[in-house]
Every structure is written in structure tokens, then in C-alpha cells.
Amino acid sequence: MGADVHASSAKETTMDRKLWETGLAARKKTLGADYVEKSLSTADEFNSEFQDMLNEFCWGKVWGDDRIQPKIRSMMNLTMLAALGRMHEWELHLNGALNNGVTKDELKAILHQIAIYAGFPAGVECFRIARKVLAEREAKK
Description:
The structure is a single chain. This protein has 2 domains: 2-62, no CATH class; 70-140, AhpD-like (Up-down Bundle). It is built from 8 helices and no strands. It has helices at residues 2-12, 17-31, 33-41, 48-62, 70-84, 87-99, 104-118, 120-140. Helix 2 (17-31) packs across helix 4 (48-62), helix 5 runs parallel beside helix 7 (104-118) and helix 7 packs antiparallel against helix 8. The chain is globular and about 45 Å long.
């Protein structure tokens, strides 16, 4: 049902299909195809338009802008999401940052930056999540 709802909402909105496709590709590359496909397949009448907005504007227009490399954009996202206290999204984007080439050593430096500028409680929480994510990724190898 999700794909049908998604397709009908795309017809009802003025959407730049090229940006939408660019966004879908960037979103899958960063967050993983399984995660994105699940988000799209579970879209319904209530949130399918929002999924389109994510693909077109967030991932197509912004992430599709090649003036900032995906790795750098991921680093920026980690710091902003930490400062905003959006830890669920932080965990998701940590995986994305690692997919985009952020190294473990770079991650430590990012976490130190977060702790200084967003506060030590944010740094503690981000380190906790990072250790969990790194362990999960290591276990999958």
C-alpha cells in the first residue's frame, strides 16, 4: 500500500522528479537502501508527502548540492543533531557518516567538538551511541 500512496501523492504535488531521484539515491547511499526502502514502503496517506519532501528537498536539493562533499555534510549533521539533542537522528546519521567515509579517529575528534560546543552531557550521550553503533557494525563484519 505504501508505494501506491507514495505514487499518488507525487502526482498531487508539484515535484521536481530529477531532484527526487537524486535525493533518493543520496538518501540510500548515506542511510542504507534497506532503511530508506522501509521508510518508503511504510508511507501512508498521512506521511507520504513528507517522504517526497525528504527525497526532493533534503536529499535532492541539499545533499545533491556537490559543493559540499557527503563526508563533510555528514560531519556537519552530527554536530548539529547533537546540539539539537536529536539523538535518534544522530544515531541514524552516525551510520550515514561512517558510510560516507568518516573514520573512527575523525569521529573521536567530532565527539570532542560536540562535547565542547554542545555540552558534555551531549558528548556523553553521543559517545554512548557511537560505541554501540561501532560495536554493531564490527559484529556484522
